[in-house]
């Protein structure tokens, strides 16, 4: 059986009218756009067109300005259920507008590559439970201080040195395959000398790689 909210599944949170839903009652508002009329026809969901309102270009532009993503400083866009390409593209469109965001949560969005996104002021980023396989797939985050990547699929530490020149202090890599790499903690701290905490554990003396010591052996031959 369809849920009562099924009739609103292609509406943005700000389009819900006369239903007594306030903005502070929405923890993770949807940011995706609905499918085109042609796609709805092939999905046999053309009945939803009756509820749609024809929006002029002027109204679209006014709505875009009303979103005001450029001045957003703290944002939670987790659990967006990005199952279609049009949803992913709209999601990335919003991310590109977050030029002043400082704290951003993108948990459980099935994200695979945000390397084309730049978040110039982001200090705290949570991308837990996504599908990243490499550090090179992360967005550009030059001011990052706290980064959480738990429960992704990062297999190696290749590319982690790209974060070397950031003020990164805390990093979480729990439940990634790279966590089982030999000398895992030592390798992370050697690549990120400014890092103070890894997986919730502060930097310990044993996490510092000992300096390479050259040992010379004297060998004598007994005849």
Automatic annotation (TrEMBL):
<dbReference type="InterPro" id="IPR032675">
    <property type="entry name" value="LRR_dom_sf"/>
</dbReference>
<keyword id="KW-0677">Repeat</keyword>
<dbReference type="InterPro" id="IPR001611">
    <property type="entry name" value="Leu-rich_rpt"/>
</dbReference>
<keyword id="KW-0433">Leucine-rich repeat</keyword>
<protein>
    <submittedName>
        <fullName>TILB protein</fullName>
    </submittedName>
</protein>
